[in-house]
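Pasting as-is:
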Amino acid sequence: MARCGGARPGDGAVRPGRRASGAAPRALGRAVLAAVLLAVAAACTPAAAGPPSGLVVEAVFDTGADAPGLLRIGVAPPTGDVVVLVADRAGLPREVAAVEAVLTPPTGAPAPVWLHRVETGHHHGAADLAAPGRWLLAVTVRTGAGGTDTVAVPFTVPTPGG
């Protein structure tokens, strides 16, 4: 006879208020991270007949306080999306104390890009990239050991229709 009222211990179901454990959630997190990076890369891939529409850059950061890591930074001017992926040297998502970004337009003052943490090592924000010209995105990483490092990424927003 079937039992009403939910799952029984050991039947593989996750009860409300509890987290699933094991390899499946970690694999799902990595799959989501890969899908987001691919989506940003696709949005930033140059069209065959036109100028580049964005970029994806990989850079090493070294705070001096602990092990160096990798940043994968994606900027898609058509949508204004800014994605920052923080990884260890093996390429696995890495938790850090803070990730901050400042965007400097071709003319005008620098402005912060408000990044929100999506999951471990994955931060997303949006910016108004309406002005064509040379921009600079500075990403600062602060680790739990208190060290900081800033990586500057220049990129160009093309003139509409040109």
